[in-house]
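Review this:
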Amino acid sequence: MNFILTRLWRYLNIYFLKPFDAVNDTLTSYLVFKKHKLEKDYLELGSGDGMYSFIMSGGKFPLNFDRYIDVSLKKKDIFDTHKKEIKVYKNKNLIRPYLSIDAKKNHVKKIKEIGFSKYSQASKLENIKIKNKNKFSLIFFYTAHGLNDFKKSIKQAKKLLKKNGKILILVFDDFVKKNFVCYKMSKKNFFPAFFRKIDNGRFKEIGNYSKTTENWMNFFEKNGLKVNKISSGLSGTAWKVYDVQTRPILFFLIRFFNTFPSFLRVLLKLIWMIFFYPVLILFFLFYSNIYFSNNKNCYHVFELRKR
């Protein structure tokens, strides 16, 4: 329970304007870190900006830092920018990746500044080139966003895996597609353009990497990997709330909080977090599918080994 409580607070700290993001990331980090056990010097693929894995392993950011300080509201991915310093509490005793790889250069800049991963590089996951040609006993493949060829990226990961090594990969269940509220609203005659903008292509992108558990198992088997273990979580209700939450007013909230001087912004942020934190704890308990399962889950973590 301590893992869940600390991660909820630390993810809320960086995602405070979309507080239910903290529920998703706490759930997935719990599955990866506690159910499957990360090992030091792993390879991380699709790292994003590195904040997810840093917090998952026990890292934390100060209250005067979060993802909304450095954004580009004109971009589809508002976080695909890096103009401001990332502040972080250093901790060398964490389980760290040896190498983190992401396709976006701005993300890699952030990874380097956080200093959590020993090494990092920008590369398409469909064509990974590592200078020293290392192979890894553990590969953590984060959620597959923005890939052109998922099958090819899995084959690349397999090439970098040691003979008795394992891949931990976070994937979506086909069930998640039934819970995209914004996408469904965009298909109706109720402000369709508005809800299309809020969806921001997420339904299409995530839908491309969503399968039933059986279909995922078949997919991995066909690509030379055997399933050793599966852990699952997150209810449809949790995804519905995550899909909407503050998205309709997110840009307003970002502009509003960023108008204040740093000390006042931190104070307002802390009040906001104190309000949401108990709500998120209760929401996690009832809708993460960890404690009260309804047998339908949005996420799976597959533990894979070479056949």
Summary: The chain has a mean pLDDT of 89. The domain at 2-306 is CATH 3.40.50.150 (Rossmann fold). Strands lie at 42-45, 97-102, 119-122, 136-141, 161-173, 210-211, 225-233, 299-306.
